[in-house]
Design a protein that fits this description.
Layout lengths: L3 E2 L4 E2 L4 E2 L4 E2 L4 E2 L4 E2 L4 E2 L4 E2 L4 E2 L4 E2 L4 E2 L3 E3 L4 E2 L4 E2 L27 E3 L4 E2 L4 E2 L3 E3 L4 E2 L4 E2 L7 E5 L2 E7 L5 E4 L9 E4 L6 E5 L2 E4 L6
Parallel strand pairs: 1-4, 2-5, 3-6, 4-7, 5-8, 6-9, 7-10, 8-11, 9-12, 10-13, 12-15, 13-16, 14-17, 15-18, 16-19, 17-20, 19-21
Antiparallel strand pairs: 21-22, 22-23, 24-25, 25-26
Length: 209
């Protein structure tokens, strides 16, 4: 499958685009970044240097993905999402006499977005954290802590309130469950089965019933 790159996009040297990947207008992808097969990068998105992105990832318009971010297969990053990589950012030295370099240093932290996760529109993603497999992050959330697999998380700051299926449909709201009981919950949309105990979500199988 051919790679498609809009003529207004800037693709720096050393960028690897997988088969069938599409890069839309005014995108800027910096050196050393790798995207897998069949990805979509929406218009006006900026991907920094040295970022690793898996296969079949959808990145909508006006997304900023900074150095230190790794995105696994099948992730959805919705429009306007911003990733960060420094908890203690400063522009200049303490005496304000010199501009600090933008190269990675001891404060640069990494973030991992696991396979199948969805990040809603307008989110801000902190750093030194992991967004788990098939997580659903609600739009405009500010994520400051890691999110376990299959969790539904939203708010300022984001907190987990329930869980979702692989297919994206809601499975349960944790506050509505007995916290001391193990719950067997089928997805009403696709039939996949899950077990929930004390907000820990375990997939029983990955096949459709």
């Amino acid at each position: 499958m051919p790679v498609r790159v809009h003529p207004t996009a800037i693709i720096e040297d050393g960028v690897n685009l997988g088969d069938g990947t599409t890069v839309w207008d005014n995108v800027h992808i910096r050196h050393g970044t790798r995207l897998g097969d069949q990805c979509i990068v929406g218009g006006k998105t900026l991907i920094a240097y040295g970022v690793t992105i898996g296969h079949r990832v959808k990145i909508n318009s006006s997304v900023y993905i900074c150095h230190g971010v790794t995105i696994e297969d099948g992730v959805m990053v919705s429009a306007g999402t911003i990733f960060t990589n420094d908890r203690f950012p400063r522009a200049a030295t303490p005496d304000l006499r010199a501009l600090l370099p933008s190269d990675p240093d001891s404060h640069t932290a990494r973030t991992l977005v696991r396979e199948g996760a969805t990040i809603g529109a307008g989110c801000i993603i902190g750093n030194d954290l992991c967004i788990g497999r098939f997580v659903m992050i609600g739009m405009a959330s500010v994520v400051t802590k890691s999110v376990p697999d299959f969790h539904l998380s939203l708010g300022h700051p984001s907190r987990t309130i329930g869980c979702v299926c692989r297919c994206g449909q809601r499975l349960a709201i944790f506050s509505e469950l007995d916290p001391d009981a193990k719950h067997k919950v089928p997805c009403q949309a696709c039939g996949r089965r899950f077990e929930i105990l004390k907000a820990h979500v375990e997939e029983c199988d990955s096949s459709t019933e």
